[in-house]
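Write out a record, fold above all:
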Amino acid sequence: MDSILIVTTTLPTMEAAKLLAKQLIDERLAACVQIQEGVQSIYRWDGKVCNDTEVLLSAKTATTQWKGIEAFIKAHHPYQLPEIIALKPAEYSQAYGRWVNEETKP
């Protein structure tokens, strides 16, 4: 069984997050996507400090899907430079891992 990743990105609106989440599920690039509204992001962009409210998207996928999910997010994301971070959990339920792997098979 392949290990799993949690891939995160932020989006400007709930509508954009829901659309991307559905596309990731439809393309079998993610088994589950969670969306959290109201994330406050403070960052520097083009020499200015920005303070924005964003929506956090967390997608559970198999490690073999990393290149595909990264490319898909880049191609469908509204930001010029989207945050795309993959975290590899050290421990997780093996039954959950099997499910994620099954749901992300092409």
The longest strand covers residues 48-62. The longest helix spans residues 14-26. The CA atoms of residues 71 and 104 lie 15 Å apart. The two ends are 15 Å apart (CA to CA).
